[in-house]
Amino acid sequence: MDVSEIIDRLDAIGFEDTADEDKMDVINDTVWDIDSRALWPYLEKTVALDFDGSSPTPTNLPADFKSVIWLYDTTNGITLWPERLSTIRDRHGTEVTTTGDGLVYYFVGSNIRLWPVPSASTGRYQLDYFASQPELTTLSLEADILLPKRHHRTILLGALWRLYKNEDDPEQGTAFQSDFEDRISQMRADLFGRQHQRADQIFVIDEDDEYYV
Fold first, then answer.
1. Do 33 and 52 share a domain, yes or no?
2. pLDDT band at residue 200 under the 50/70/90 scheme
3. Which residues contact 31 (CB under 8 A, 6 or more apart)?
C-alpha cells in the first residue's frame, strides 16, 4: 500500500481528526523502528562507485547509504577491508592524500573514504550496502517504501500503537503494540529464509590471514 492508503486506514479506524503531519510522524517512526531491528535483506543494495581522482569519497555515493556490506575492486579482483580513522592517521598520516589503487576504506563521520585516494575511474569499485529508508511523505508511493508490500500492514499496526499511545489509550495501544511485535517476528522468519539448500558456511580466519599489506 502507498502512504495515502495507510492514512486512509488510520482515518477509518478513528484518527480522521489527527493532523496528517502527526500521522506522518508515527508512520516514519514506525518504518525507521522496523528497519533498525535487523539487517533486513530488503535493505541490501549495490552500486558501482565513481571517483574523480582527487577526492577519497566517491562522487556518486547513494543518498540512502547507511553501512557497508562488501566493497570490491573489480579491476584488481581484491576485497577492500575497513580500517579505523585512527589507524589510517597513525599508519598513513603523511600519505593520506596519496593516489593509487584503493586498498582499504574508512569513515570520517558517515562519509566513506578510500585509501590510497583512488585514481579517476568509473564503476571500478563495487559497493554492496545497507540502505536507510528515506523520509516518507503523504505523496510517497508504494515503491518508495523499502519494506516489501506483503509486510506493509506492520507499518499500520506500529502507527496505530503510537497514535493510541499519544491519545493516552494504553489498553488499545498495548493491543496494537503486541500485534506489531508479532508481525515483526513473522517478518524475521519470512525475510531471512532466503535459501534452504544448505546451512551457512563458516570460514576460519587465523593469524596468517591479512586484510592488506
1. no
2. confident
3. 133, 136, 145, 147, 155
What confidence tier does 211 reach under pLDDT thresholds 50, 70, 90? low
Helix runs in 59-169, H state only: 85-92, 152-166
Counting the structural domains of the chain, the total is 2
**Is 206 or 187 the better-scoring residue by pLDDT?**
187
Whole-number pLDDT of residue 213? 44
Radius of gyration of the chain (CA): 22
**What does the alpha-carbon distance between residue 191 and residue 40 come to, in Å, rounded to a whole number?**
7
Q: CA–CA separation, 99 vs 110, rounded Å? A: 22
Domain encompassing residue 122:
43-131
User: Do β-strands 65-73 and 78-79 pair in parallel, antiparallel, or remain unpaired?
Assistant: antiparallel
CA dihedral sign of residues 124, 201, 35, 112? negative
Question: Hey, what's the cell of 20?
Answer: 496528517
What angle is formed at CA 35 by the lines to CA 184 and CA 9, rounded to 5 degrees? 65
| Dihedral sign of CA atoms 162, 164, 169, 170 in order | negative
